Amino acid sequence: MSIRPWRDIARRESRQIMVGKVPVGGGAPVTVQTMTNTPTSDAKATIDQIRRCEEAGADIIRVSCPDVESTTAFREIVRAAKVPIVADIHFHYKRALEAADAGAACLRINPGNIGSDDRVAEVVRAAKANGCAIRIGVNAGSLEKDLLEKYGEPCPEALVESALDHIKLLQDHDFHDYKVAVKASDVFLAVAAYMQLAEAVDCPLHLGITEAGGLIGGTVKSAIGIGNLLWAGIGDTIRVSLSAEPEEEVRVGYEILKSLGIRTRGVRVVSCPSCARQGFDVIRTVEKLEERLKHISTPMSLSVLGCVVNGPGEARETDIGITGGGNGRHMVYLSGVTDHHVEDAGMIEHIVKLVEAKAAEIEAANAAAEAAAEAAE
Known about the structure:
This protein has helices spanning 43-56, 68-80, 93-101, 117-130, 145-151, 156-171, 187-200, 215-231, 246-259, 282-292, 311-315, 347-376; strands at 17-19, 22-24, 31-35, 60-64, 85-88, 106-108, 133-139, 178-183, 206-207, 237-239, 267-271, 300-305, 320-323, 329-334, 337-343. By secondary structure, it is of the alpha/beta class.
């Protein structure tokens, strides 16, 4: 389905950097990130978690490196990963040097927090030598003491000033492959800070509402904050911070992007909240279908409506649709057209097979189109 003019989002222009082989900014697709929560020193557990995040669609994954044991395991982790790995460094610059040498695609480090200018220079040299980008991560919960004294409390101006101070340290060493985040757990504070920063710099911006909360509360806060910024055209890469498994962060990130028509991955489910008119248990059906269809990465749409009030209309706009009917018989729509009925028994399995077949059809068509384009060249 094409994007209507009233849905167009004019993205902020930014220069592009590379995080490994993934472009960030400069018109590249908005990437979805997450972060592992296993002890990094346990390479196997961390790699297992990375695998789950990759299967969920993560483009970039961050791994904390608080000690030597972590940076020692980091090399094995990077080799095993299929996506670029960011090394999260806080205050110890030597961890940044070790992570860069171990294959980090990006260093998450605030140069003003690691000590002398000589240390900043060492980190920049290591980043340049190893092709690492750097992410500056300003957080309202850990603003510099002088800025808190100057402004009295965390505020957009304080977050932006902190970011600009860190940027200058990198620019003074002729380093420009950086992206910046100005996160806060307060949605209003974060959005205001990002909007101010977007006017002040041309680098890619990493969006996030930090310490957002659990799966439900954190999803809502993140959708409001990140969604508002993306709608305004601001943001080149996102991380949804949840007190939940990291693969859930990835799924929520994609749902935000899908809702805005910015990027699609997997099955977009359109479903009703259900009522007494429903011809089948919509809530339980959707729960089961979402679980069964997690493995589908092909962008497509599925409508699940309990009755004929809105069902046919929604089905006309989706690849596959089902509308509840009477006596346990429900109408199935393919490409918006009524096609056949399905009984209650085996309905979920039937829909799963239809979705899998449609995904295979779409992938085959895409492959044929790519082959034709290559042949034409």
